[in-house]
Amino acid sequence: MSLDYFFKPLGVAIVGASSDKSKIGRQVLDNISASGYRGKLYPINLKETKIANLRAFSSLENIPTRNFASILVVIAIPAQFVMSEIEKCGKLGLKNIVIISAGFKESSADGAILEKELVEVANKYKLNILGPNCLGFINNINRLNASFAASGSGTGRIALLSQSGAIGSAVLDWLKDKNFNLGYFISLGNKASLDENDFLEYLANDKNISAIILYLEDIKNGRKFMELVSRVSSKKPVVVLKAGMSERGEQIAKSHTGAMAGASAAVKAGLERSGAIMVESLEELFNLLPLLQMESMRERLSNTFQIVTNAGGLAVLSADEISKQELFLRNSIDVLGDADAIKYELALRNLLSQKSKDNILILLTPQTSTKPLETAAVIIKLSKKYPKRLIVISFLGGAAVYEAKEIMKHAKLPVYAYPELAIRAINKLSDWKDVSFGVQPYKERLDKFGKTEVDYLALFSLLKKYKINTVKTIRYGTEATLTYPVVLKAVGPDFMHKTDKGAIMLGLDNQLSLEKAAASFYSQNKKIMQKEENYLVVQPQISSGLELILGFKRDVSFGPVLLVGLGGIYAETFKAIKIVIADLDKARALALIQSLSFFPILNGARGKKSYDINSLADVIVAISRLANEHAEIKEFDINPLFLKEKGALAADVRAII
Amino acid sequence: MSLDYFFKPLGVAIVGASSDKSKIGRQVLDNISASGYRGKLYPINLKETKIANLRAFSSLENIPTRNFASILVVIAIPAQFVMSEIEKCGKLGLKNIVIISAGFKESSADGAILEKELVEVANKYKLNILGPNCLGFINNINRLNASFAASGSGTGRIALLSQSGAIGSAVLDWLKDKNFNLGYFISLGNKASLDENDFLEYLANDKNISAIILYLEDIKNGRKFMELVSRVSSKKPVVVLKAGMSERGEQIAKSHTGAMAGASAAVKAGLERSGAIMVESLEELFNLLPLLQMESMRERLSNTFQIVTNAGGLAVLSADEISKQELFLRNSIDVLGDADAIKYELALRNLLSQKSKDNILILLTPQTSTKPLETAAVIIKLSKKYPKRLIVISFLGGAAVYEAKEIMKHAKLPVYAYPELAIRAINKLSDWKDVSFGVQPYKERLDKFGKTEVDYLALFSLLKKYKINTVKTIRYGTEATLTYPVVLKAVGPDFMHKTDKGAIMLGLDNQLSLEKAAASFYSQNKKIMQKEENYLVVQPQISSGLELILGFKRDVSFGPVLLVGLGGIYAETFKAIKIVIADLDKARALALIQSLSFFPILNGARGKKSYDINSLADVIVAISRLANEHAEIKEFDINPLFLKEKGALAADVRAII
Fold first, then answer.
1. Using a CB-CB distance cutoff of 8 angstroms, which residues of chain A are in contact with residue B313?
2. B316–A365: do the CB atoms touch at under 8 Å?
3. Which of A321, B71, B423, B640 gives B567 a disulfide partner, CB atoms 3.0 to 4.6 angstroms apart?
4. ipTM for the predicted complex
5. A133 in helix, strand or coil?
6. Is the dihedral of CA B378, B381, B385, B389 positive or negative?
7. Is the pLDDT at B437 greater than 90, yes or no?
């Protein structure tokens, strides 16, 4: 399914074109013409024969072409008439379609049914459909504005995909104001057929595009998304603003888009795994633009800074921000309050002639001898001369520095309203990582579990299959030599939350106290304990080792997501947990362990004993395998896992099918 | 020392006024005239008799006045000539002076000497001197621009004090661009005589001023600053941007201002104690301005939100940010993409007629039926009708919403470029607290310690005086019945860091192993142990209780600063410490304990045992007293303090005099 003819069609048919200039179909037609599109235009209108000086056609089948597959169809008619047009497209061999019309999933139950039909027809004829309920797309590289949003006349190196039409149009309006041009703008709409994954695949190979930005409200196929982003990221950064990352935001997003999104913790883990640059707000997103459009930005980027300033105070504030972002300030050069452009030039030349790759942050406030315009000219000149160095600029003030800032922006230099914004943007970009992905060593197993909540001792056997050591656990009443003290536990479907029901009896020192505890428990839980699935088990009581939690949850979009954390009260108090995609091999498991907030405790800081990190990594890998091989398990927890100086022991386990 | 005549003089003398318009003295003269000042003007110039159509005087003593104290003198001449003018002022009874001239402490060692003389003369004659090395001040309320910075023609309700002239002038330029007027602008310069505390005192009582903003690079008298800010904060918010809060920033600030600032941890504790609103960047500061200028802002402020939006995506992003700031979103009303001004009005009226005090966040993106201007008019109308409600606005876009935003800004409504900025600004303002201050129950004691590092057992006695229970500690070799196991410790000036030198011997189970350990230690540390100040002590080994650290450090500006933290490895790993000003009574100590990140552990979360919070509070109060009563102690630590289910025991103590 190539999107070549989608983005570079030989002709465009506009269903819903009209002589009435207020109609959206007409606005699209005008936008296509105005954008300088060189292909053929086919306005489609039942009644009219001439629209905007172009010959109009009464139906798609009347288009004079032998190559329907090379034509893009834009549909802007009421929802109830859309399906028959799509069916027509399918039959004619028109493959590439933009449905601008609203009135589908986003609006009502009837609309959702209509959209379902749409998907079926799209699949049947293998159609590329953008939308419905979208603005269309703009391809500035090949001069085609197939949307009803206004576009500037230039082009750029960034592709922006937006799942919200409203945000998309606001951003376009904002960018126009700033004279900032995109390469592509794609309004994703309801994503009935084409979604972010299809466009990522296409844009990955477009050499005109150096960065891809996505505003998303849901990610339909998280597994594929991760794979794609990791692939694209090796060549160009993928920036994702995912709305609905808070619980409250997620609620509103669901009611707004009707989308069944993955849980936000899983989305976060998935985005991290993919190597995407995650931003959390529009401001953060916009602040990245001046850097993303730079040539060979990655080669320029450094985590060390040099400052040139005519105001000591600004340098101090910048140093504070650099520290806060955990970047490094090598030096701050104060050219002093009376510095003219020549002093700036001297300081800059000196820095640029050095071999270092430090980012240079140029600060300026308008003072008596300051020459903002001349200084800007110096900066533009030197930036051109040193295309491998990252120079970011913040001139603070109003009218006194306005023109200087404008000419630097026009020269595509990264100019920021405040120094802290430049520093944060650079720090954000340093999240851009090359990640390997696609290693999927785990396959689904056949010996699936059947019940909703799995038998306790069966789960212990499963752990053993995966070579995870467990605390010796026997059914109460079984003949065995016990080492006291022991723990008595009630297990089974009625004891999924053991602590709540007094189902864990600790510190039983001898056979007598064990028997007493068991008898007392039976008598207090007669009814429940009559069920065969509920029974008592005995374990030796473990007194040493660090208590950890380890488990996974299966996300609808991103697949199994693994949680590892400190057990007990410290986990809650210090939120000492981490959630990652459960595709860990040994190397990744070791890296994960090192990234844990409580790694110093595992590693034995301050002369304390260290724990068996290698065994922990083995357990993490085993749980990863288990999560991938047993697709029938929805949730799985080992809590606690006792990590020892040597080895690790699972003491309790729980699963939901 | 009233500043009435400083800010509202009957006349202004400008030393350094000149016919040469490029001279700073002349610029000040022109600014005073242009600002609409109604008092007398006395240009002072040795040679000229007429300047800018005003009669000029050859020297300050020639000013035709009987009330020198009512006159403000602005000095803008080279540094080497300043002293004789100041001396002249002193003798004539000219009390109020602005020294704009640079070339003092900030420039050289000679300059620093000159500034010292200046301070002496100022003290001798009780002069109010602003500067040197400053821009001067602007009093827009009484129409007097006594600075060489340009000012707008209006006035406002905010006073801005800046220790950096460069940042001050940039901010003024920026504000002029935004048509935003301040009540006062004060460039603090080197703060040789008048400093932030003097102006806080004056502005506290100025009813025209509803908020005070300070950009500071150091705080000279932190103790007084806290008192003043807490007093002012009961009436109006005090916002502080303190540069140099990072280690690197502090370094640059010191080299830049030559100021001996308090340590940043102490500054932070002090600002928190004072009830000031701390901001960390210029952007954060600027984002507060639209809220700070509102009438009865405090009464409007709520921590719950309602959203009205025509774009679901923007509401989702806002909900994410509201969650992130730990505020609450009650409801989000989507008036849908086709909403015109009437739909906005209906939704708004409905919200405003409710009894709740929720903040209302209005979001808009330009879509096909959107009416930005009409919607802005509706918002202005309803904002006026409901002056007790906080309405914040974010219209996203460029040209399509520009004018609408401008007219709302002109109506002094809080309009933000992005919703997240509005939410963060509101959250910041919620830091504005009324704090009681000035309760100073502790006085300095007479029985001071003499030595640099204090005798170990003497410190244990000191703890007992303050009713802090200690682990029974005796000198090794003293007759006593010991409870084994015991700990043997080497103490004294050579063992300040005990763990480094093997100076703590744990787990000695009986008399024999104790004697062996002592003998072995003596033989390995012969030379050091010959010093009388070094000796061995014996303590019973404590095996239960939670290990805490408790201590204080004396800051040069803010006085004693108390640290409380979790001991051992968890403190380091999770940065589980808190630093506060050491003036705690029992109530404040209990509040401090509740604010600790590890409070859940103290309080016995998840069915675990709880620790004796009341005893911990008593120890904290005792350490506070000790810190205040023993001004000779620079640093003091109890580490560990064993907190038990009942009681608390100090096991080790260290002090530096």
1. 163-164, 166-167, 215, 217, 243, 256
2. no
3. B640
4. 0.91
5. coil
6. positive
7. no
